[in-house]
Amino acid sequence: MISLFGIISAVVAVVSIIAMVLHFRLMQKRGAVDEALASINDILYAITEYDDDNEEAPAATSEEIEEAARAYNDAVKIYNEYISRFPGKIIALVVGFKKEEVFCLR
Question: I need a labelling partner for 63 at 20 to 30 A (CA). Which of 41, 47, 77, 106 fits?
């Protein structure tokens, strides 16, 4: 015969596993946002270290910034969408994650 305590323990275990999986998925999405932002920061740092003798660098850097900004904005859209729906919304509230703003080039 199954006891009430056994049923409650099983439900808690299942909910805990689901919460861990959802938390992992949220951290993956958050990690993509952080990686894309780091890429933008790396490019912006390269601009500050720009050598005036190299005339091709600004065009290449401009393209790199646009590409990195697109990657960041794509990651932010996926992340924001995930934390605006159930169950990601619950996990984001618990962890303290908030919506991110997209990167504007102009």
Answer: 77
Residue 100 is assigned to a structural domain of this protein: no
Distance between CA atoms of 54 and 65, rounded to whole angstroms?
18
Which whole-number Å values give the CA distances from 97 to 57, 63, 83, 93, in the listed order? Answer: 37, 30, 8, 6
The structure's pTM equals: 0.58
106 located within any domain = no
To 10 degrees, what angle do helices 57-83 and 4-48 make? 160
**Domain span holding position 58:** 4-95
Count up the domains in the chain and report the number.
1
d(CA 66, CA 105): 7
Rounded CA separation 18/22 (Å): 6
Q: Band the pLDDT of 92: cuts 50, 70, 90.
A: confident
